[in-house]
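Intended use. Records such as the Glycosyltransferase RgtA/B/C/D-like domain-containing protein entry shown here are meant for training and evaluating sequence-to-structure methods. They are not intended to support clinical decisions.
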Amino acid sequence: MWYRWDTVRFLTIATDGYTKVQYAAFFPLYPALTALLSHIMPFQSLLLSAMLISNIAALGMMLVLYRFVETEFGIETARRTVLYQAIFPTAFFFFSGYNESLFIFLMLCCIYALRRGAWWFAGLFGFLAALSRSIAILLLLIFVCEYVRQHWPTLRAQLRPLNLKALFAHIPTLFPALFIPLGLVIYMLGLTVHLGDPLAFSHAQVDWRTGLVIPGMALYQSIEQIIIHYPLSFSTPHVLIDFGFFMGCAALFFLAIFSHDRFARDQWPLLVFWGFALLYAILWPGVPGLPGQGYDPMPSTQRFVLEIFMAFIMLARLSIRHPRLHLSYVLLALPFLAVLTLQFLLGYWTV
């Protein structure tokens, strides 16, 4: 039942490697670990190996998330954040043969290390995250932002008056940041060897009916499909869910900046990462299919929201002040999770 959709592609890569350009959209760390574990474990099942990796990573992800939020926001916020992410309607991907939990675990480890000033550990986890998902390149942005935040008094003194020698002295400390793009470069070298195209991971998006557009077009296309083109089609509820989840995440982003429960001033690098992640999500909408058919203007948004852990932190902060929000979320999320999990297990398109 779990052998569905992208799980099939990950396991095909684990078995045969990158034999088609369309598979280049799936980054190599997860299938590589799956193949390795299947050779080590006695059961030698790729599917079981993939799900075992996902479940172990999900456990690690929740532990790191709890520790991170507890350090930054307090115990009660940490408890609610982990709960809200664990029961989110698409949280079943954490335990299926997808790389969601592995990527979020590595991303959280990277950001947690950054907040503690452990630059080399942050670079290492960022390197591994870049071998898991393309969006990991945004970790380079938060790396630089966090370094600037922690060293701003020194940097400001060196900028006025300008002291180039002192500024260049920061370069060795920033060297671990290069590990993040290094992960992508290594993958590109592998694609060059196997497919003859270092940008195959980008070119493969055509096969999955996505393409780069101006920001906002995906939102416009979603509204257009819901209201005008295909209001009664099978795909419209799916598009509505994608659109709703994205708008909810975006609303929480603005609340994290302007509301009474906004993030602290020294947490601005988290907001920068969150903002660019939202922008990243709407730069790659789906493209229309045949005339008269519905399509997915915001593909994989339901999974993407899972990765924006800052949204769950903000939701937790709001729910502490507004207890009814906590109850409402739990009562809505749990049955929604059950429905989408059942839909996935029955082989219906979920995201």
